[in-house]
């Protein structure tokens, strides 16, 4: 199965194959043996890559994942081969209009980094929310202008609560 993964603005094609010798992952012409297991009741995974162990936390953020590993944080977008083909065939693009970013889990708003009228670009931090004892940047998914900020610093939010509305361009 092939995926297209974009991390920090760089797209990589990832091919995953399972067989008699375990799971193999090919990225950029290099192949790795991997084993991935979720730690029950958490968003953390035990990842073994060619015998080297990593703890990776994956936090959904809209259509992206925030991946945390070894003290670093990465924002990733994943597209399947089928999704890629559908977008290419239909020429699909994001519709214009308002896009509201929702809280993906309960948390506490530490900082609000944008105000109504501010221009934003994809990946630009808009808020910092603490959830599960970790600080998570909530970033813009689309280019546009902040229409409304629905929260303020020191506010508790529930999963699904609106955070920021961006008017796309």
Structure description:
With 169 residues, this protein is mostly beta strands. It has two domains: 84 residues, Glycoprotein, Type 4 Pilin; 74 residues, Beta Barrel (OB fold (Dihydrolipoamide Acetyltransferase, E2P)). The protein has one helix and 16 strands. The strands form three sheets. An eight-stranded antiparallel beta barrel has the order 1-2-3-4-5-6-7-8. Strands 9-16-14-11 form a four-stranded antiparallel beta sheet, with no helix packed on it. Strands 13-12-10-15 form a four-stranded antiparallel beta sheet, with no helix packed on it. The protein starts with a strand and ends with a strand.
Q: Number of domains in the coordinates?
A: 2
Question: Which strand order does the major sheet show?
Answer: 1-2-3-4-5-6-7-8
CATH class of the largest domain: Alpha Beta
Number of strands: 16
Please, how many helices? 1
Order of helices and strands: EEEEEEEEHEEEEEEEE
